[in-house]
């Protein structure tokens, strides 16, 4: 008997030793019997927050993640935008601000689990819902379906991404507990179950059979109809203010058993240019969050920090309404990562359900008002073509789209001549609404007017036969939601002058970002042109200025905000970093976030502005201003009918 006990003891010690050496098997799965997740055998629910690494400079990732951890979250949720990592077909970028593995490792080190949403489609108010624009090289491609060309591209991308994610799975010792397949597929017209089945097999083949794969759809039976699929755990998304048990009833319709999950609980809401800034009251967010947690559900707060659509990355809704540069979202952490009342209110609610970490919360980062910076006119776009378009123009009878010009983002210049004398104002039109999205028209170097998708399809021009017509077309961001995501840019149909179609175009693909970062626009031009006649409009023009970070003040450089008094609409770069679009003339966003990480104390900081509409220098001195407070909620100045935000939250309420 005694000997037996020794043997048992020895076996036990040996088992423990083996486990210690090999590590306790980590597992994460759905317990259908007890309606919960199980992590290493223990009942588990996550309280997570959305943070998009692609909207935050890498240097700030740790600060934002720590603040999320201190709020009491035990997980984060992020999308992976395909177009951010494969900007042109077969060319991948996972470095610097795109270093997804580093981001996941930081989350893991801080003690946050990860809910990964790799798409391929993500929506996310991100250009084309994260799909790369080069997919449109096949004109009639059916995105998010079994279209063989689409599937081939998806297979290749996932063949790159998912093996990279596998070591980060919970089962492999990493932070990723669940992985979403597609996104809100039930809201898409195609309803192609073979596509979802294909993705499921693809994800399983790369990630194995142990990982929990899930779907997310609006909390309505009609969304789950095409969004849910056998083998993928169905979850729902819904905002505050509704009836939580009714919303979860929709999930129960697809998943009679298993954990309740709200994958997107809206802490705020998105904005569009020309609409009022969205806010959602803290009280209503706290109340609904409490109700969700009270029924034992897992929840993800979308967004916990929104961040910024730097560069050209914002998306748009349909009918065409682009989102601004800020993705502040009225989230618990501001665009700049600052703490808000909403942050602390959410932390108090979470405290009722789980222990939140002790210790002080990291403070908001200080902001500095560097003041006014004198700007001077550099060149007009039309005068700078030699440095903006190194390859020169492509000649075409009819206009070509951005994709046909092999350009994804920014601006393309279309140049032709007036075929006839227009001594009286003659309508220049886009009869098929084919200006995607805004065109700045000039005749012989004088601004003639602006065409805008859905809003301004005709302007009048005057001029002699043979006068040079320049049409600078701005891509304002591709539609990211609904059936219109095949959003071609440029002049996607012909322009007419009177009754005639304009022909004989010279089309310039423009590498503005490259020219800005190489400092090419700062070189003196070939003689200043005579100033144009006074007019409310000017031709698109670059301006430059520089400022020095003051000496003797500790902790500079600090974050800041830039504003544009007297300016109307354009794009701004600091030291070659594309901060995004400004459009105070339309609102509601007035200031742009300036992260300190792009500023230099070693050399003057260079500000380059492309102003598209009006010359801010004509009335007097022209400056941009660095301030310490953001303005995202200015009164909206739009002569156009108010467009209503259209989706999801309204569907529910
Ligand atoms: C990859 O992305 C990073 C971050 O945006 C950028 O700095 C870098 O230049 C990119 N690399 C290439 C090869 O484009
Ligand atoms: C939510 O809806 C259910 C079913 O319609 C109802 O019984 C319940 O009272 C509602 N809850 C609230 C808070 O309104
Ligand atoms: C163009 O000019 C015509 C005639 O002067 C005028 O009736 C019309 O309103 C103008 N259209 C625009 C868009 O300015
Ligand atoms: C312009 O019109 C011509 C002649 O009708 C047509 O062949 C061509 O496809 C049109 N181009 C565009 C971009 O719509
Ligand atoms: C600004 O541009 C000047 C002139 O090209 C250059 O010497 C300087 O280094 C630039 N500043 C920064 C911070 O890049
Ligand atoms: C904008 O927001 C600020 C700060 O929250 C607030 O003080 C101000 O009243 C708001 N302005 C408008 C026009 O809503």
UniProtKB/TrEMBL annotation:
Classification via InterPro entries: B-gal_1-like, BetaGal1-like_ABD1, BetaGal_gal-bd, Galactose-bd-like_sf, GH, Gly_Hdrlase_35_cat, Glyco_hydro_35_CS, Glycoside_Hdrlase_35
Domain Glycoside hydrolase 35 catalytic: 37-351
A GO BP entry: ganglioside catabolic process
GO cellular component: extracellular region; lysosome; membrane
Principal cellular location given in the protein's record: other
PROSITE patterns: GLYCOSYL_HYDROL_F35
E.C. number(s) listed in UniProt: 3.2.1.23
Molecular functions per Gene Ontology: beta-galactosidase activity
Record's keyword terms, sorted: Disulfide bond, Glycoprotein, Glycosidase, Hydrolase, Lysosome, Membrane, Signal, Transmembrane, Transmembrane helix, Zymogen
Source taxon at top rank: Eukaryota
Domain Beta-galactosidase galactose-binding intervals: 540-601
Parts of the chain that traverse the membrane: 6-24
Domain Beta-galactosidase 1-like first all-beta stretches: 399-510
Cellular localization per UniProt: Lysosome
Catalytic reaction equation(s): Hydrolysis of terminal non-reducing beta-D-galactose residues in beta-D-galactosides
Family matches, as SUPFAM superfamilies: (Trans)glycosidases, Galactose-binding domain-like
Iron recorded as keyword: no
Catalytic residues as annotated in Swiss-Prot or TrEMBL: 184, 264
Sequence similarity: Belongs to the glycosyl hydrolase 35 family.
Main function: Cleaves beta-linked terminal galactosyl residues from gangliosides, glycoproteins, and glycosaminoglycans.
PANTHER family: BETA-GALACTOSIDASE RELATED
Subunit structure: Homodimer. May form higher multimers.
Protein name: Beta-galactosidase
Annotated organism of origin: Esox lucius
Source species taxonomy: Eukaryota, Metazoa, Chordata, Craniata, Vertebrata
């Amino acid at each position: 008997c005694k000997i037996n006990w020794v043997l048992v003891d020895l076996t036990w010690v040996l088992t423990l030793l083996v486990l210690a050496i090999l590590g306790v098997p980590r597992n994460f799965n759905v317990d259908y019997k007890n309606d919960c997740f199980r992590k290493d055998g223990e009942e588990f629910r996550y309280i997570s927050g959305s943070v998009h690494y692609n909207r935050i400079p890498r240097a700030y990732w740790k600060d934002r993640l720590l603040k999320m951890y201190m709020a009491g979250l035990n997980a984060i949720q992020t999308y992976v935008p395909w177009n951010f990592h494969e900007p042109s077909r077969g060319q991948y970028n996972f470095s610097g601000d795109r270093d997804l593995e580093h981001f996941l490792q930081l989350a893991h080190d801080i003690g946050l689990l990860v809910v990964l949403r790799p798409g391929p489609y993500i929506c996310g108010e991100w250009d084309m819902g994260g799909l790369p624009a080069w997919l449109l090289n096949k004109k009639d491609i059916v995105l998010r379906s079994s279209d063989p060309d689409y599937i081939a591209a998806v297979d290749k991308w996932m063949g790159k991404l998912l093996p990279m994610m596998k070591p980060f799975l919970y089962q492999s010792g990493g932070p990723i507990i669940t992985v979403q397949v597609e996104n809100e597929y039930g809201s898409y017209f195609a309803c192609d179950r073979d596509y979802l089945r294909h993705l499921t097999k693809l994800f399983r083949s790369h990630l194995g059979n142990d990982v929990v794969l899930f779907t997310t759809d609006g909390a309505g039976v009609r969304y789950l109809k095409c969004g849910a699929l056998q083998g993928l755990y169905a979850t729902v998304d819904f905002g505050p203010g509704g009836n939580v048990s009714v919303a979860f009833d929709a999930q129960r319709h697809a998943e009679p058993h298993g954990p309740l999950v709200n994958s997107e609980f809206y802490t705020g809401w998105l904005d569009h240019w020309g609409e009022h800034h969205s806010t959602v009251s803290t009280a209503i967010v706290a109340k609904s969050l409490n109700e969700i947690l009270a029924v034992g559900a897992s929840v993800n707060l979308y967004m916990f920090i929104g961040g910024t659509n730097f560069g050209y990355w914002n998306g748009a809704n349909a009918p065409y309404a682009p989102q601004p540069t800020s993705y502040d979202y009225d989230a618990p952490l501001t665009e700049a990562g600052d703490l808000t009342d909403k942050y602390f209110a959410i932390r108090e609610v979470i405290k009722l359900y789980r222990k939140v970490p002790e210790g002080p919360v990291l403070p908001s980062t200080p902001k500095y008002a560097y003041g006014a910076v004198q700007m001077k006119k550099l060149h007009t776009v039309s005068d700078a073509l030699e440095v903006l378009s190194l390859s020169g123009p492509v000649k075409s009878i009819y206009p070509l789209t951005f994709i046909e010009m092999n350009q994804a983002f920014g601006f393309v210049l279309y140049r032709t001549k007036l075929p006839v004398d227009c001594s009286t104002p003659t309508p220049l039109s886009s009869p098929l609404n084919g200006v995607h999205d805004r065109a700045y028209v000039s005749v012989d170097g004088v601004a003639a007017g602006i065409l805008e998708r859905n809003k301004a399809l005709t302007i009048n021009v005057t001029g002699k036969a043979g006068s040079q017509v320049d049409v600078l077309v701005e891509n304002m961001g591709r539609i990211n939601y609904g059936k219109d995501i095949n959003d071609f840019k440029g002049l996607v149909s012909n322009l007419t002058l009177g009754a005639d179609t304009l022909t004989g175009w010279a089309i310039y693909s423009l590498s503005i970002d490259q020219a800005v970062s190489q400092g090419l626009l700062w070189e003196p031009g070939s003689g200043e042109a005579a100033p144009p006649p006074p007019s409310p409009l000017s031709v698109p023009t670059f301006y430059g200025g520089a400022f020095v970070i003051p000496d003797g003040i500790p902790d500079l450089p600090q974050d800041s905000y830039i504003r544009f008094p007297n300016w109307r609409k354009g794009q701004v770069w600091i030291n070659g970093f594309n901060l995004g679009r400004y459009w105070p003339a339309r609102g509601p966003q007035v200031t742009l976030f300036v992260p300190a990480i792009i500023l230099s104390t070693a050399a003057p900081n260079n500000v380059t502005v492309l102003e598209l509409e009006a010359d801010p220098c004509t009335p007097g001195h022209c400056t941009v201003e660095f301030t310490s407070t953001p303005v995202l909620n200015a009164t909206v100045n739009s002569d156009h009918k108010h467009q209503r935000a259209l989706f999801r939250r309204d569907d529910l309420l």
